Amino acid sequence: MSEEKPGRYPRTASGLVASMLVLVLGVGAFVVFRSLFRDQTEYEPPNVDYLSVVEEAADAGIDLVHPTSLPQGWKTTSITFTPGDRWVWNMSMLTDAGKFVGIHEEDEDLSTLLKTYVDADAQQGDPVTVSGSVASSWDTYSDSGGDHAFAAEVGKGAQARTVLVFGSAPVDDLRLILDSLARG
User: The pTM is what?
Assistant: First the structure.
């Protein structure tokens, strides 16, 4: 009597390549088919009311650094206020050209903030003087990727906090925000 063996197909490298090709073509066809019958909606970022948060913080005795108003066409896309003894304030904006500008205020060391929000190798530039802002002198920084930042300390003694205005927007756009910063 002969012993029966289960049937097997020959496994070859060319068979593997052929099956992978069929799989890739099938996935590609599905993606193309799906894109033909799918509505492409444009994402419109929200325009967050940052002034209401600034007012609420002021009512609690915390003066947040913020722009008094935004340039025409700009949007506030997100804000974060973390209350506590060492509170933190973040504000993210998009310019009318869709470039990012952020404001960060915290009682943290400047080098730590630069590493987090700009670049570990941010290069310091010449300081700038800004009249009518929350600080008269701002240090400047930039990285090789085109990000820029302005940094200043506001407040005195135990109330001192580091403010960072940063982003991928052109320096002139960042300066618009610097010129409009207020506390309260």
Answer: 0.75
